[in-house]
């Protein structure tokens, strides 16, 4: 029988990170630890339990063992319970109104869950949410229509992180597993509606490379865009974690043409100037503490591959021949 009392929180976080990313390298990067340190934590955890938790092959993670699959839901519950305890202990009861802006163009189910949990912990707070694209949320902030919002913005790879940044990762090209471009046709693109920074950046990058393209699908939400790319409508640009968590392939080349690097995307917490109260400060701290280690997270704070672990390595860079 697995005795969770013999584990440390750091070991549990390491195990969940590896399960999430299905890669020691990516998990170490997300935890801001060295791969050696993360590997040592997992081995210590396995030694303490007397069970192997991961299926390994030549240093690669191929999936969870039976013991790992049994442990994962308990590990997730433990981390959620610790987060709840932190919420209740660190934040006294506050009151006030909060209007929260939630992005439509990435999967932020975890933020919806956070809003729900915050309202339960602070019943005297009036919390209301509105979803929109990042660009429109910025205008809503300027106009005082929302008090606080999470937005995404594109930056150069060598740029200094912006004020209020919660997460930063590469923006990459992506396609569904079965997608094959036709060299005789315009390159099909899946994009968000006007207002998404990804859309403009993607189109300008292809134009600069001399790649002829056409938009074949416009989506209003991350879920719709992801579904269209999975179905093979065309290629798109997404944050690296969204590609891995969404079951897509990362593209680096199209036949003989090397695709340009797209820079970085930041998830940034913004607040309306001159608007501050105890409720807003408490909610901002809640976001900073609970933001997950992947931008493609679900309500549980982890991508679907964790709760439905299918034992495959995270997709790496791919080249699609026409």
Automatic annotation (TrEMBL):
Gene3D superfamilies: Periplasmic binding protein-like II (3.40.190.10), Winged helix-like DNA-binding domain superfamily/Winged helix DNA-binding domain (1.10.10.10)
Superkingdom assignment: Bacteria
Keyword DNA-binding: yes
Record-annotated membrane-spanning stretches: none
Domain HTH lysR-type as annotated: residue spans: 7-64
Keyword DNA-binding carried by entry: yes
Signal peptide region: none
GO molecular function terms listed in the Swiss-Prot or TrEMBL record: DNA binding; DNA-binding transcription factor activity
Keywords, comma-separated and alphabetical: DNA-binding, Transcription, Transcription regulation
The family this protein is said to belong to: Belongs to the LysR transcriptional regulatory family.
Protein's UniProt name: DNA-binding transcriptional LysR family regulator
Organism: Ciceribacter lividus
